[in-house]
Every structure is written in C-alpha cells, then in structure tokens.
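Tutorial, part two.
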Amino acid sequence: MSSGFLFTITSAGLDALVDAQNGNTNAIVITQLGISASEVDIAPTLLALPNEIKRIDTLSGESVSETIIHMTAFDASTDVYEVRSLGLYLADGTLFAAYSREVGPIFRKVDIATFLFSIDVAFADTVAESIVFGDATFLYPPATESTKGVAELATQAETDAEEDDQRIVTPLKLGVRLAAALAPLFQAIADEVAARTDADADEATTRADADIALGNLIAALTGRTITGSGLVTGGGDLSASRVLTVLAANAASAWAGTDADRALTPAALGPIRSVHALNGRASIISASASHQIMVQWGRFTPTAQGTSTVTFPLAFTTCYGVFVDGGNGASITGDGDHFARVLTSSVGAGNFQVSNDSDGTPCMYFAIGEIAR
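Running the prediction step on this input gives:
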C-alpha cells in the first residue's frame, strides 16, 4: 500500500538530525520500521512504540527532493497482524519518528499475504538529504529523469502518438514505431540501390558490347594490308606500324635514263638557273654530281678594225665553246673586210676575245660550258 502520513520526529531523532546537518556526524541512517497494533499518543519524548509487534529490517528509502523521502518496507513472513502505529528506528536503536492512526488499522496482514508498505514522508524543512536508509535493495518511488522508480509502460498507440512524456517505451514498441517511420526511407534506399544496380548492369552490358564491337573493328583493321606498288615499296597488314619507301634517282641515273624503279627529284636534276633576257642564261640537266651544263647568250659591239673582249654575265667553271654571228646589218667596205670572229685561244671561263676587220656593227654570241652545282 502507498499513502501519505504525518510523522512526528522525536526529540532524540531531532538531536541526531541536527548533528548530521551541522556536520558533526554523518547522515542519519534509518534501518528498521517498527509496527504496533495499538493506538499510540505520539509525543516528541517517545522512545519506542508501545506494544510493538515486530520490526521490519527489509526497509529501503531515498531522498527524492530536499523535503521528501520515499520509503518502502517489505515483509514476506506468514505472520498475521494489524498495524495502527509506525516507528522509524535508526541504526543505534533510536526512535527517529513515529505515526499513529486513531480510527481503524492502517493495514492488516494475513499469513498467505506479503506486506508491502510504500509511503512518501514530507518534512517542513530541507532535511531529507541528511537521511539515508540501511537497505537500498528495493524502492518504489515514481520514476523521473533524475530518480529511479516505478513507471508505467506505454501502449503502442501512445508510442506512435509521440506525445506522452510520463510512460516508458519498450524496445518492441519502439521497434514497431521506428520500422513504420523508417519504412519509406528504407524503401527509398532499396529503390536507389536497385536503380544503381540496374544502371551498373546496363553499363557493364554496354561496355561489353563496346568491347566486342571494338575487338571486331580492330580485327577488321588488322586484316587489311597496305603494300607498295610501282615506285613505292614496303608495307604489310595493320597489326604493326609499316614504312612505305620511294627510292630517289641520282643525277647520273637521271642523265642516263636508267633505274626505272626510282623517282626523279629536283636534287637529281640540279638547281635550275636561268635569266630570260637579251643577255641571258639557262642550266641544263647534267649527269655530273658536281657540275651542270650551262648555256649563255648575249649581244656586244666589237671594236672597229680591232680586237675586243666580251665578258660572260656568269662565269663558267669551264667554257666549252663560243660562237658569234659575225655582225648584223654590217656594211662591207672592201674585199679585205671580215666580220667579227672568235679568237679561240682567248676563250676562258669568264670571257673571250673577238677580232673585227669591219666597222663596229653589233653582234650576238652563244656560249656553252659547265658550272659547279
């Protein structure tokens, strides 16, 4: 049973309490609950309960605030009794406080019943923290966030409502609530995992198809061949890098007209040198690797009745020969007159001389020789 009772602290109990509060002793310790079937005139001078039936040692208590003590007593014996008065005894046997009911018993115990007595004791001053109990193995105060005690289990509906802060939620009911609350999240995660798995599978299939297509393409390419024809030689299939070659003709083969499997290049022909003018020149293909045929032409006016020197615009390495036309529109003054003619011994790389028995009539020349490449 549980109720509220107005206990009277005895003079001896007050002395012990004051000493504890002043720090002269440790907190007072309540170790026994005395019970009596008699109605007792409670006074501060009381030293023990009259007609005490027994003292219960299985007593537990705890301070739940500065002014309130919650206390529980337990008797599992087969004793039979009625209780009209209660007394709280300290460890040294001092009666700390007592209570008595004038009308009717506080409770009755029979042999087949277990006595469980639970009360909240209130004090006017902040003395509860100076009182402890000898046995703290069982206690049934209302549970709070700071006090261990008795609490009611919440139903599933109360758990789902998330509004009750007094009842306790069991793991089973919390699991049901969390499962319902988290089901959409779990489903979303499962859908995402499935979607990504499908995407990965599709990507793997796409990659496999791409690898097959690429392999087929590579096989087709390596099956092709590129080989030379005509002047081009070398080549092969595309499984490796290939080199195609075109051989070049040299000057000798170009001049001789041999080596049909070689290409004629500007280097084989030599540099083309020409001046297109009245006094000009032009190079000709030569078989020599070091020299090239050159022809030059021009006009000059010889000295009348004398010898004159004509200089080539470009000096030859070797001049093979020079030819002059003897004049253009010259008038012959006598049988002894002769046109301008080359003095063969004078022909050199850079010039030649002519002898003229006539007047100074303009003439033309044509020269052929070789020059260095």
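Residues 328-335 have pLDDT under 50 and may be disordered. In part three we will examine how such features are distributed along the chain.
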